[in-house]
């Protein structure tokens, strides 16, 4: 059985109904939504009035239908970037495009419709995505509120979605009585339930057993296979990242490295910033003076004798 989808209806940024073609998945599916970040900076203001720089110049392009895992140490900006891509927060500076449309140019109403139908975000901490006093079935119904009656008939029935994440027995269970892992799987089922063109999931498997983790990964990858959905997950688990053809590693609020088809690459950032691979960083601490010399297709980085 395929996952079902919401057929896009034509629309224009700023008002009305969001809808745009993406890359094809299965024949007839709307396909995925590509994403592009240009010089994205994000600051948080703390209660004490200090600014925290969470992102400091992110340039990133994710093609329609791509599947990407975001990695990186705690505090490196993964959740911030995901929330910006999902239109939940707006960047302090820089530009974010969903398909051909720039998020900062979208009106609130248009953005809300986009988030309700085409772009699903599962935030870090499953309960933030759920109505804890409601049942699993009611949460799925709530996630699909923006769909038309016809669209609702096209997406997967609630029972089937819950079966896919191993929650068939929890259909009428209230979220408040569920375990952390059950909430995590329900939150993902809700995010997937509209058949989105872009699915963003922040640590969707961090609390799961191996078996439940595999259920969740199967659902994520089926969205990509059946609908052409663009899928982006944040994870700290190498075995989860290994199921994604592309990884993006955040470091200090920037894209530090990328993995493609099993090879790791450092990424030259804005103003020529280049992160050292983490296994080298301890031997080359901040402040180390280095000489950089181009040599055909290489850059030779060396530490002069008297500064080592
Ligand atoms: N609401 C907030 N107010 C102030 N600072 C924040 C807020 N949210 C995040 N930050 C700060 O922004 C930076 C990036 O945080 P973010 O949550 O994006 O990191 P992360 O990579 O997702 O980390 P983790 O792996 O722990 O989830 C951190 O320094 C964090 O302390
Ligand atoms: Mg996070």
From TrEMBL:
One of its GO terms (cellular component) is plasma membrane. The keyword Lipoprotein applies. It holds the Pfam family ABC_tran. SMART domains: AAA. Residues 35-277 form the ABC transporter domain. Residues 1-27 are annotated as: Disordered. This is ABC-type lipoprotein export system ATPase subunit. Keywords: ATP-binding, Lipoprotein, Nucleotide-binding. One of its GO terms (molecular function) is ATP hydrolysis activity. SUPFAM superfamilies: P-loop containing nucleoside triphosphate hydrolases. PROSITE patterns: ABC_TRANSPORTER_1, ABC_TRANSPORTER_2.
């Amino acid at each position: 059985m395929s996952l079902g989808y919401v057929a896009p209806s034509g629309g224009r940024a700023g008002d009305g109904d969001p809808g745009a073609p993406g890359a094809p998945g299965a024949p007839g599916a709307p396909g995925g939504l590509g994403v592009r970040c240009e010089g994205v900076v994000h600051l948080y203001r703390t209660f004490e009035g200090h600014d925290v720089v969470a992102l400091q110049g992110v340039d990133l392009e994710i093609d329609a239908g791509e599947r990407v895992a975001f990695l990186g140490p705690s505090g490196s900006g993964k959740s911030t970037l995901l929330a910006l891509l999902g239109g939940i927060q707006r960047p302090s500076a820089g530009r974010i495009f969903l398909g051909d449309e720039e998020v900062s140019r979208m009106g609130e109403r248009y953005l809300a419709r986009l988030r309700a139908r085409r772009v699903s975000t599962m935030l870090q901490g499953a309960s933030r995505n759920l109505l804890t006093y409601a049942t699993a079935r009611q949460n799925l119904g709530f996630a699909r509120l923006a769909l038309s009656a016809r669209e609702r008939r096209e997406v997967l029935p609630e029972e089937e979605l819950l079966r896919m994440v191993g929650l068939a027995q929890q259909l009428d269970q209230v979220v408040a009585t569920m375990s952390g892992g059950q909430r995590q799987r329900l939150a993902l089922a809700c995010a997937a339930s509209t058949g989105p063109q872009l699915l963003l999931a922040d640590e969707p498997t961090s609390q799961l057993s191996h078996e439940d983790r595999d259920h969740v990964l199967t659902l994520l990858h089926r969205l990509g296979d059946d609908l052409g959905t663009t899928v982006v997950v944040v994870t700290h688990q190498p075995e989860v990242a290994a199921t994604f053809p592309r990884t993006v590693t955040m470091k200090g609020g920037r894209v530090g490295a990328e993995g493609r088809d099993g090879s790791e690459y450092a990424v030259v950032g804005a103003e020529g910033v280049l992160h050292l691979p983490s296994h080298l960083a301890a031997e080359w601490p901040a402040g180390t003076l280095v000489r950089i010399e181009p040599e055909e297709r290489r850059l030779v980085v060396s530490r002069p004798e008297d500064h080592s």
